Amino acid sequence: MKRLVLPFLCAAAVLAAAPAYAGDRPNPFGITIVRFDAGTTPAQMRTAIAKAGGEVVTDLSPVGAMAVAPVAPDFGSRIAANSGVTTFFPESMFDGPVTLDGKAGSGLVGPIDLAKSHSFPDPWHDASSFLGVTNPEGILQWDDARMNVPAAWATTLGDKTVKVAVLDTGVQASHRELKENVGTTQTFVPCAALKHEYGEKALKAAGLTDCGTDDREGHGTWVASRIAGALNGFASNGVAPRVQISSYKVLASGFGGLPDWILSGLLAACSDRVDLVNMSITGYLDP
Question: Cβ(239)–Cβ(227) under 8 Å?
Fold first, then answer.
């Protein structure tokens, strides 16, 4: 399978399952984005922020910005006085993904009809729909049928040289459906930097306790399995079950995320030269 490297964002944002949504509430830490003139070096950015009484939380220098904890009470006026700063503004929040599917009290997965499954590598593919979900195909993985995935499988099931980045709540790399297909796992939730500035009690008060690389929400793991779930007959298969997943955790369970976390993960994915980026995140923020 030919490698695809998109020149600018190296990303195609594919909405899969319930995404995280942009919210109206401000971030509880007052994290502020500071943008600088083109040509300003990372060192110059850090010096300007320190002189204004701020601390860098996330380095966004590849796009000419920094995410800053405004420690000094007059940080705004001091950073505004710097001629190299083009703009600055407090970040908004992205809420965590909604993971409830179907209706309460609905039935479980129905019996597998193997007679219908001869075209698919995974026998669960054509299991009847469950949890009250209905669709014209009446099968568990109706989306494969609508996307003509079986026709694509006649050509390829994916290739391990192809890396797909999942920017989400993390991925459970040990999961039975994914353990053969998950490569790197990283987090861009800056708990250490936030603890340094505000203390652990402040993080707990804000609901930010999900600081590891693992997935405590489940959404990112589901997304990864939809992309590259194994053909092992255990549960649903992925669209391309032989590609490799790289996890970039940008949302924290029970908290959500800040735009700079998402951008930082995206910049890292581009730097890692992944072939495709999946972001199940939607919304519009106008600073």
Answer: yes
The pTM (predicted TM-score) of the whole model is 0.81
* Domains with residue ranges and CATH for the chain: 20-24+157-282 (3.40.50.200), 32-90 (3.30.70)
Query: What is the rounded CA–CA span in Å between residue 238 and residue 274?
Result: 18
Q: Residue 286 corresponds to which tokens in the numbers above?
A: 């106008």
Token pair, residue 72, equals 């000094």
What are the residue ranges in the chain where pLDDT is below 50? 1-17, 99-119
Locate 243 and state its tokens: 């590609």
DSSP assignment letter at 92 = E
Kindly report the CA angle at 223 between 63 and 95, in degrees rounded to 5? 60
DSSP string, 101-143: -S-TT--------GGG-TTSSSTTTTPBP-TT---TT-BTTHH
Tokens found for residue 195: 């603890």
Tell me what pLDDT residue 139 has: 74
Per-residue model confidence (pLDDT) at position 103? 34
- For residue range 174-184, list pLDDT tens digits in order: 999 999 999 99
State how far the Cα of 213 lies from the Cα of 60, in Å rounded to an integer.
Answer: 20
